Structure formats: C-alpha cells, structure tokens
C-alpha cells in the first residue's frame, strides 16, 4: 500500500501468512525448530538463506551485506546510478510505463550481479523497454550523495530478499519475503522510506517481556544481598538476550506440535516477529525492534516451554545429541527454571564418605553432621539450586566420566612391546587433534613427539574416538614433567574437558611422585594455564630444567607445583560442599542472633576511633581479634626489638631494591603513581629519631614498601618477586619477636 506521504508500506498479517525457516545458501537444509540461534547469547542470528554453521551463520549474512553496501557506496557516482537505473522507472518521453526490473514474480536471476564487468554504461538499453538506463535515472541528477547511498542500501536488501524468496521452501514464509521484496522495490521507485503498517504498532502487548522479567526479579529477589542480587540481574539479562536471538518455529510446525494451541494468535505474533525483529537484522532498511521490548506474555508463553526444555537438555545431557555445551547455559537455564513451572529436584552429586570435608575448630561435630545431612539431602535442595553463577568448569566433564560417556587413558608408543592397534589408532587421532588445533606447529614435529617412546599422552576418548589430550615427557631424576602439547578438538571445547584433563594429569603425576609441571605457553594458552594453577613464578631451580626442556621462541615459561594431599579430580566438589557448609552455619548463626543494638553515638562527641571489640554485639557474633600481639610499653625495649628486626631485613638477600629512595632518573613517573613512598633508609632514620612509638607504625611503614613495589612493578618483574619474599621474611621475624601472634 502507499501512504499519504508517498512512503511504501507493508501490513504484516494482511494477505501475508507468516512462517520462517532458516536455511543455508548452499542447500535447503534448515535448523531444528525452536532452537537457539547460531552463536546465541550475544551474536546476530543468521539471515535466512545465509549461514547456518557455527562461526559463519551468526554474523555471516548481515556481515556480507554490510561489506557489499560499503563497497557499493564507495563506488563512483556513475556506477551507483547504473545500479539504481535497473530498479527505477523510465523517465523517457512517450509515457513509457517501464518500472525497471519487474517485481511481480521475480525472474530466476537478478538483472545485475557482482561478477559483471565494472565498466559503467548508462547508454545500455533497459531489459524491459528500449530506452537507455540513463533515462531511468534523470530524476537522480540533483539528488544528494547521502540519499543515493540510502537508496543503494535498499537495492542490496532487495537483491538479498530475492535470494531468500527463491531459497525458501516454506510457502507461508516465501509469501512474507515476497511481500517485503515488493515493499522495498516500491520504496526505490517512489524514493520513499519503507514502512511496516499494521492495525497495531509496536509494542504489541504491555507489559513487555523485558519489563515483566525485571518486575519479577525486583519482586522476588530485592531482599537478597547486593552481590547475589547482581548475579540474578545478570541471569535476567542473559535470559532476555536468549529470547531476542531465539529462532521461532513456523506456524505450521507449531500446529503439528501443539494442535490445540491458538493457531491464529501465534501466527499473528510470528508474522510481527518476522517483520519487525528477524528480517531487519540483515535488511537494515527496515526498522528493527528487540523481541523482548515489543512482545509480552503471549509470545513468552508460546516459546518458553520449547526453549526451557532444550536448554535443560543441553545442561543435563539427557539427549543423545552431541550438542554444544557452554558455561553460559547453566545460569541461563537456571533462570528459565525460575520463571517457569516447578521442576524436579536436580540429581545430587554422589557423596563419598572418605572425602567428606572436615571442619576443624570450636563448632560442635553434631552441628556439622546435621548441616552435612541437609546439603546432601535431595529433598532439601531449594528451587534455585541451579542458580550458581560460579559452577566448576569441570563439573559437566566429571559427570560424563561417571556415566561412561568419556574415558581417560595414558598411552604412548613402545619399541619393546608388540604394537596395540587401538593405541596406535588413538595416537594417530591425537596427532590429528594437535595438528588441527595448533596450526603454527609443524605437523612433522607433532608426529615425531607423539610417537616418541619417551613421551606419553593423556588421551580423552569419547564414543571410541580421540577428542583431546595432553602430551608430556617425565623427568623423574629432575623432579618435573614437561607439558608439550595440550588441546581439545574445537567442537568439544567449552565443556570443561580441558580442566578435567589437567586434573587427571595432576593425579597421575602425584601417584608417580613428580610434583612439578613446566611448559612453554603461547599468548593464546597463558589464560588456560593460569586457570589450571600455573604461574610465571617457577619453583623448580633453573639448573634442574635448563638443557632438558624444549625452548620455544615467543612463548612464556610457566610452572605448576602440585600438592599431593589434594584430590584434584574431586577438588571442585569438595570446595563446593565446604562453601555450602559455611553458608548454612552462617545462616544458623544469624538466626540465633536477633538482638538489635542502637547505633554508635560516640563519634558525635569527638571520638576519632574505638577498639573493634567495644562495638556492642560484636563479641556475641563469635568475633575474635586476629593477629593481636603484645605491645611493648618500654620505649627502649621497643627500640631495641625494632632495630634488630630492621637489621635482619636489611641484611636479607632480597632487600637490595628497597635500601634507598627510588631515583626519578631510574623510574620515570614513579612519584606520580606512588603518593607515599617508603624505603629502608628512611625507616632507619625514623627509628633513630624515635618516630616508631608503637609496633603498628613500624609495621605500617614496612608494609608500605611492599605495597608500593607491587603497585608500580608488573608481577613478572624481579622487584615484585623480591617484595614477596622479603615480606614473608619480615613477618617471620615479627612473629619470632612476639609482636604478633604466630
């Protein structure tokens, strides 16, 4: 339809049944109905007829269109006019009725393609009439460059919709695309802006999904502490984002799945979603809205059941499909459970008596046992038990191992034993995984080390095939192991396999009494190794590993020291239970303390500070002063003690960076960063002048030296390490002198 101001308009739902199924350009294969868009939670869903695989589908369609638009807008003006001439009506004399490329039933091929010659010829005759293309653009001679570029953007959207019309197999969806195609064609002819008109304009229902979720969060969780409330808010944002990029099922698909549903209502909402939310993501000539801002309860109810079910399946691995698991799905799924109907209690982790966390202190053992019974009782698990935003990275992998989905084997080549066919196949699989995931490493080098009898590999097996592993070489005489390669195949990443692999490797080495790892990590692997407990502070003496491990150019040497008393594969479970115990104990303590004390009024009377233990009610909470030592009242005794400690500190081998004040020439900008400098020379002068009347003044100045050093210098610097070592030595001497409790 044409509006009064000359703009073109398309009325969603009027003669244009809705329906949408995303397909790839190469074929007609669609994605599963009602599934999250490729790259969900943060990326743009693939345009119809474009993409459909991870990494390319999410931004592929819209990105390609954006690149084409940028290229065309930077072209010379004659080239732009030639492009617009194909879609503009003829202005030649004789009342020519040609409207350029016919819009009723698009031909099998568009009139122009990018593969054609770059030569510009406005004298070329129009395909629909005998006049030249120049006669089609006479009305554009005095039009601004900005308006020309806007029209060119619509032209590319028209051509893309043309592709969608011919690729789409669903008849209803094809009709919607064709209607939008004609709307944009008419906008070019009339030089107007495309407008979507309907009996109702966005928003279609109030309150919107976004407002409803926000209201729910405020009503349900406003009483929580700020940190927990912030976690819930983040979950809500992720939930809304998932709806914004959720791929709705077509009305015909929904009729087959839910025959008793309100088909007409869903069809109307689906058409609006297609026209206002989905298609405008890749055709930016059309106005675009967020799904959660213009739709309300009706659409949420229609998509929630399918959305929740599929997210839960991906969390709990209840389907046989090898779907991509992402850490973001856990809190997101928790929120869908929260706003939906009641769920079944989640299956608790198996309780192992021999690894029960043990709390030492003044808490009665009966209370500990009572709390333990509470946190391990499935019936006592609250409705929001899935809401942990900090679930362990390896939790899903550990559960898969218990169910037998994945296996871990330490394998290697041997020159003494008869080759095992299965092990050789796994070694070949490992070589393929390492070669694919480490493209900068020569394949010949990878093959040589994987099949080297001196190297072993901890392999991760799933469905009988290798999906990851860690190749290493043990040096028992030197007390360390070198990690050579570590990789998990790309389609199995972000599932906690990498963390669980490293934990198995740690336990394997503890059994073999090797407690140090060394590895050279490139810039992409440093983050992973830090999460696994590695650092740049190498505990192994340099003389132990120089000449033994392979040196890689541009890589960073990192090390990890193992603790033989830690069961690494179950460590996150133990920590989780310990946190739950402490939380329950705090809740019980808070329930016992119900007395409310009046506020402190002493500060209004001029008091500057009071001892913590004098605050009313503080001791009733179980608080005890920590680190409180004896204060030497005799000034001479205090002076003598502090002088002895200072001499010990100055004589330490790591005290050399702190002997004198920092010189501006040696550290430019130091005094802009460090406002209160301190050094051992200044402390000696203060000690001589009897400045340190209490031990706290002395300890504060010494601590300032270490704090300033760590603030100005990077962690890998020698100064930073000296500060850490000298600080430990200082507090050892303070404790020996009895100035603080040991």
Automatic annotation (TrEMBL):
Keyword Transcription regulation: yes
Superkingdom to which the source organism belongs: Eukaryota
GO BP: any one term: regulation of bone development
Entries under InterPro entries matching the protein: Acyl_CoA_acyltransferase, Bromodomain, Bromodomain-like_sf, Bromodomain_CS, GCN5, GNAT_dom, PCAF_N
Residue ranges of every copy of the N-acetyltransferase domain listed in the record: 415-563
Location relative to the cell: Cytoplasm, Cytoskeleton, Microtubule organizing center, Centrosome; Nucleus
Molecular function, one GO term: histone H3K9 acetyltransferase activity
Domain Bromo, chain residue ranges per copy: 650-720
Ranges of compositional bias, category Low complexity: 34-48
Chain segments annotated as transmembrane: none
Annotated protein name in UniProt: histone acetyltransferase
Lineage summary: Eukaryota, Metazoa, Chordata, Craniata, Vertebrata
Originating gene: KAT2B
